[in-house]
Amino acid sequence: MIGRYLIDRESEFQPLLVGIKALNLIPYRLFTPEYIVLNTEFYSGWQVNPEGFLGENRDTITAIAKYFQQKDYEQIILRSSCTEEDMHARGKYHSKHCRPSVEDIMAALEEIYLDFQRSEDRTDLQLAILIQVYHRPKMKGHMSNERRVSSSKMDWMIEKEIASGMESEPENFTASAHDRSLELSLLNAQNAHTSITNLKKFAAYFSQLAGVHHVEWVWDGQKLWLVQVDQQDDDAYEGTKPGSEWKVERKKISGKAIQDLEVFETVDSVTNPWRKIENIRTFIACGLDYWPVYILENATVIESVLADTPDVSLITDLKKILVLPIVIRTETVKKDSMSPRTDTISTYQEALKFIKEKAALFIQDGLQTDQFCFMIHQFISSTAGTLAITRPNTQVVRIDSIWGIVEGLYYHPYDSFEYNKGKDSILKKIRCKSQYVDVDAAGYWKIKPAGIKYDWRASLSDDQVRRIAHDTDLIAKYLRKPVNVMFFINKGNGYPEILPWFYSDEITEVGKVYENFLSVKNKVIIRSRADFERLKVTGNDGIKRNLFIDLNVKDLRDRKLIVEMADFAKAHDYTVDIKGSMLAHAFYVFDSRGVNIRCIDPFEADHSIKKYYKLVRDKIPTMIGSNNENVQSYRATPEALLSLLKDKLVEEANEFKWARTDEQNIEELADVLEVIRGVCKLYDLGLDDLEQIADEKREKRGGFEEGVVLVATQEQSAIKLKAEQTELFEQAEGSLDVKRKPTLQMFARGAIDNFKSLTEIDHIMLPYINNLAVLKDSFRYLLKNEPFNAVEVEYHQGGINLKFEVLDEVVNDPSQLSLYPSDAQDKTN
């Protein structure tokens, strides 16, 4: 120990003296920049006397300066090391680099101490300062195998930022199960590639240890340094089941409206067009579940509360509703989202207090008592909160969901689903939901850990996705406009499983791409209004910053704060990152006010391009486009149309061949007729003209009505050496299973004679010319002197699909058949 407050020996490191961050570096001291620790007792002394303590202990600060000056270090960095600091607190506390001079160190310490005091509500937490040599980075970043990366601790992610502040795409990799030793050679990295290679070797070592790790690293152009190592034990991932803390008597949960209230209006009786009431009326019109809401809009009754003489009928009504705990929401004629609301209330006194406080605020803002209302409903639990958007003329519904209540979607990771109504298909992106917002036993909002049972588990089942999509689609079609619908999701707790709660027209373009550069060089984390107030003081220096918004429960629904942050970011050209949903109101506010905001880890549905290159009915492109699909098509010239119609006729005839029911037969026959109509129009013929030609052929050769099947023929010699037979072959009633196995060269010669014309096409579909069910499922052929050197032939009901490939290495395989007759091993096959 250097004096009373400075610690440099590992044997003297104790958690309550040096904090978690410093303690975690002990095993890796050979790989970290040189450091000493200013212990927690120094911070305790400053707390008692913040004005004079640093000056009174100038000798300690002088000792710090000398320690680094005598080793010719030009820069040091002071890092906060709290006595209780887990991975979720990463980035919460301040760090500062400076010159190793007494004045600079004193200024940095005061800044860090003040920031810690403002940002931490708990007074029992103590702060040590980890003082490291500062190595100017040419590249820096983070490496982690936290569960947010993967459910397997062998899976890691490296995030990199070069000196200019540019951030590259994260690199995901699986750590090696070998080479798990730590060697000093891992420090040496003469180039960026070597530094990343060495990081992966560190990852292999960390993977064999208990728990998961998050590493902050710096590469200075010569050496790779571990500047911070956070570790979290496996038992830290014990979570809570969503909705498990809130317990009420299930028999009291009915969802039926209370009828004999005196001062509260219901959905049926209210006259003012409050948004929430219009929502419920829409749900009723669509035949959906809804939850009873009671409206206090009586100006006289509200004024009685303001005068501390609440109407007796109001108290009586509140007691009737309070058979279960309630929530009070507000709405004004301004129709703002995120208006003030309560947590769970259990007594009428709490209700009266809220009504009085908020009514006074509304009046202070210039509203009359008939321009706002209070809406009361019995508390609704939810195991998941969901937002869903769609448009009335599309087939696709986008759904974002998270455990607990829907407000968790504002700033926490979530699950995304895309449901296609026409195809009944679901695309999904399941994220690690390590934390979510829920209520505790008393009904107060709380951020909870999901734990290993729920963090990677989908928050919605496929059946729930379909039902949410169905309800959202009903609402959009009823309103005839795009909608964003909020749902409560429950199961087995007495509440409706899928309960629509609110809808709006706040829709952000989910597929929006942000081209502007998003800097991470000057990242500022905003977790509270206090953080934003500090930014307002320091943020007018002209430096562009990147704001990472992760508001705490207290400030989660503060719309005024969100608007202020959005306007401040826009005015200072800041970029904004959030982990929450693009469907949530918070994202909408930032985006609608022109802020360059991005959603971290967005959902990008993988819609591959389907290529057809075939003739379709005239209205098909329009029909596909109406289902929210991009369509590329063109009108064929008359010269090309005949060939396309011939192909189409074979295709439709083949579909007729494969039809299995009478109804399908007739349906496919109608398609054949439509192709014939197209050919007739091309030749300026009417169907009557075509029928006349058919009748003439029928007169000469007959039709196909008697079921005559030609089995075989044989020419006869001029001189008969055998007895004359009465019939060439015996006539057979019914059908004979006579099949001819076509050669593979039949379609090689006839259908593909110039591969050079196919450079823009990666496959061709050939219709069947016979029943090829006797052939194998697929073959691969080697090509010569063509843009492609292999073609894979697949046989299935729809036809023969040829997929053209370019193989890196062509090996003659005697088991593979050649496409060309001259190379065929079995020319009769």
* Biggest beta-sheet profile: 6 strands, antiparallel
- How many helices in DSSP terms? 19
How many angstroms separate the termini? 89 Å
What is the number of strand segments?
29
| Proportion in helices | 25-40%
Structural class: alpha+beta
Low-confidence runs: 511-519, 726-732, 735-761, 769-777, 815-829
* Radius of gyration over C-alpha positions, nearest whole angstrom: 37 Å
Descriptive report:
The protein is α+β, with helices and mostly antiparallel strands and 829 residues long. The protein has 19 helices and 29 strands. The strands form seven sheets. It has a six-stranded antiparallel sheet. The chain is flat. 29% of the residues are buried. The model is unreliable at 511-519, 726-732, 735-761, 769-777 and 815-829 (pLDDT under 50).
Outline of the structure:
The protein is α+β, with helices and mostly antiparallel strands and 829 residues long. Helices cover 28% and strands 20% of the residues.
Question: What tags apply to this protein structure?
Answer:
disordered C terminus, flat, 829 residues, 20% strand
SSE blueprint and pairings:
Layout (H helix, E strand, L loop, with lengths): L5 E2 L7 H10 L10 E4 L1 H9 L4 H4 L1 H12 L6 E7 L12 E4 L3 H18 L7 E7 L5 E6 L10 E8 L8 E4 L17 H16 L4 E8 L4 E9 L42 H11 L8 E3 L2 H8 L5 H10 L4 E7 L15 H17 L7 E7 L5 E7 L5 E8 L11 E6 L4 E5 L5 E5 L5 E5 L12 H18 L3 E7 L8 E7 L18 E4 L2 H10 L7 E4 L9 H13 L3 E4 L6 H8 L3 E4 L20 H7 L11 H21 L3 H21 L4 H15 L43 H7 L11 E4 L11 E5 L7 E7 L2 E7 L24
Parallel strand pairs: 22-23, 23-24, 24-25
Antiparallel strand pairs: 1-2, 2-5, 3-4, 3-5, 6-7, 6-9, 7-8, 9-10, 11-13, 12-13, 14-15, 14-20, 15-16, 16-17, 18-19, 20-21, 26-29, 27-28, 28-29
